[in-house]
Write a structure and sequence with these properties.
The chain has 448 residues and is α/β, with parallel strands linked by helices. It is built from twelve helices and 21 strands. It has two domains: 165 residues, Beta Barrel (Lyase, Ornithine Decarboxylase, Chain A, domain 1), CATH 2.40.37.10; 184 residues, TIM Barrel (Alpha-Beta Barrel), CATH 3.20.20. The protein binds ligand LLP.
């Protein structure tokens, strides 16, 4: 049984609550009033939650002897306001395209605290990054190393780089978001020798300065074991580099990937425990081969913003569908769908959903929350229990939509993207305004 009233604190934003009318509130404002003001569907971020996660990361990683930089992975969700909050809290920003770089720069993030990666950065993207003085560029191929070295030489600067390596670690997560095994597009493999070739090439380029090594083993990871293997292999590689090239790297970046709870069964490791495990293994491995302790870096995205937002939808239709003689499933159609949350269709992601605009004593029944797109795979929450009396006009809130929902959204079926707002202490603000039909029509030169 799912309790449609209780909001599990490990899944919902920190300030989520219900008021006396049974409406869900975030930061002291009811979702009903927010939808009245900004429309539906609506992404609502809890500012306090984001700031708190940033602080937790900083304090977890700053207690140990290993100095650690925390880069927020902007791909999870990026707007100038969120970037400013995170920089205020002491985080740096990781970007993977010229677009994300532009947002970070427009937010006033200092270029030297930006890290830029990606497997196919374009020449203009690299030129821009070098020109503005991005602190670290993570190189991902031999072609890119030559390209970047030429760009930096022409501009007369020495660009700091990290080499993205593939460790051969299988993070236990969905294949599409697991990135450090061998047969994939990211990084340079240690096992095949490609990583050493890339490092040698970087070291031979006067316009590049090798700071360290970078890895990323996947996403939505719940335990430290993958990171422990990663840390072991990356330190081993650093030691090989020292012996082979007489060069000591000073920075090891183990990427992001720390998971969050979307449903009650999800049990991700606490950030403090993860930090301790990663620090311990780095220290132990370095001590074992007498390698000077490098600076460490991590790149959490989802762990900072994922749990901070909910998506509120308005119900348009409720259709009981006879599935078997014993099973009726309520198909609850909402005013968004796979265009604002593709994760269910793409990764079989699971979400927690609740009636957000009132209280009810109705029984919970087998339900599926679906979108309004012309596609049967357009499912937001596949299997859930929701009150039997849900009706058109009711609001539903889906938790855990702060990461990889708005950034992966589309205009499928010409749906304008929802607005994104944030709330704190009874005040709301727009992070990204709602798209209008005019925004979409403006792209078609045939429309006068
Ligand atoms: N660093 C690198 C190099 C990455 O590629 C990523 C994510 C991160 C950090 C941040 O990972 P996080 O801490 O957020 O797990 N769209 C997928 C996730 C793709 C992650 C891509 N890279 C999803 O919706 O689950």
């Amino acid at each position: 049984m799912v309790d449609s009233i209780e909001l599990d604190p490990k899944i919902w934003p920190d300030t989520a609550d219900r008021n006396s009318r049974g409406e869900i509130t975030i930061g002291g404002l009811s979702v009903t009033s927010l939808v009245e003001e900004y429309g539906s569907p609506l992404f609502i971020f809890d500012e306090a939650h984001i700031r708190e996660r940033a602080r937790q990361y900083l304090s977890a990683y700053n207690t140990a002897d290993v100095p650690t930089d925390i880069y927020y992975a902007g791909k999870a969700f990026l707007s100038t306001t969120v970037a400013k909050w995170l920089v205020e809290e002491g985080l740096r920003i990781d970007v993977c395209t010229g677009g994300e770089l532009e947002v970070a720069l427009r937010a006033g993030v200092k270029p030297e605290s930006i890290l830029f990666h990606g497997n196919n950065k374009s020449v203009p993207e690299l030129e821009k990054a070098v020109e503005v003085g991005v602190g670290r560029i993570v190189v991902d191929s031999l072609v890119e190393i030559s390209r970047l070295s030429q760009i930096a030489a022409v501009k007369g600067v020495t660009q700091q780089v990290l080499v993205r390596v593939t460790l051969g670690v299988e993070a236990h997560t969905h294949e599409a978001i697991s990135t450090a095994h061998e047969d994939q597009k990211f990084g340079l493999s240690i096992a095949s020798g490609a990583a050493l070739d890339a490092i040698e090439l970087v070291l031979s380029q006067p316009s590049l300065s090798l700071l360290g090594l970078h890895s990323h083993i996947g996403s939505q990871i719940f335990d430290a074991s993958g990171f422990e293997i990663a840390a072991h292999r990356i330190v081993e590689l650093a030691d090989t580099v020292r012996k082979k090239f007489d060069f000591t790297v000073t920075e090891l970046n183990v990427g992001g990937g720390m998971g969050i709870a979307y449903i009650p069964e999800d049990d991700p490791i606490q950030v403090g425990h993860m930090a301790k495990a990663i620090h311990e293994i780095i220290s132990t491995e370095c001590a074992r081969v007498h390698f000077p302790l490098p600076k460490l870096a991590v790149e959490p995205g989802r762990a900072i913003v994922g749990g901070a937002a909910i998506t509120v939808y308005e119900i348009g239709t409720v259709k009981p569908v006879l599935v078997t003689d014993e099973l009726v499933r309520h198909y609850i159609s909402v005013d968004g769908g796979m265009s604002d949350n593709i994760r269910t269709a793409l990764y079989d992601a699971q979400y927690t959903v609740a009636l957000a605009s009132r209280q009810t004593a109705a029984l919970a029944v087998t339900s599926r929350v679906v979108g309004k797109h012309c596609e049967s795979g357009d499912i937001v929450v596949r299997d859930t229990l929701l009150p039997a009396d849900l009706a058109p006009g009711d609001l539903l809130a889906v938790a855990g939509t702060g990461a990889y929902c708005r950034p992966m959204s589309s205009n499928y079926n010409f749906l304008p993207r929802p607005a994104v707002v944030s709330v704190k202490d009874g005040k709301s603000q727009v992070l990204l305004r709602r798209e209008t039909m005019d925004d979409l029509l403006a792209l078609d030169p045939g429309i006068k």
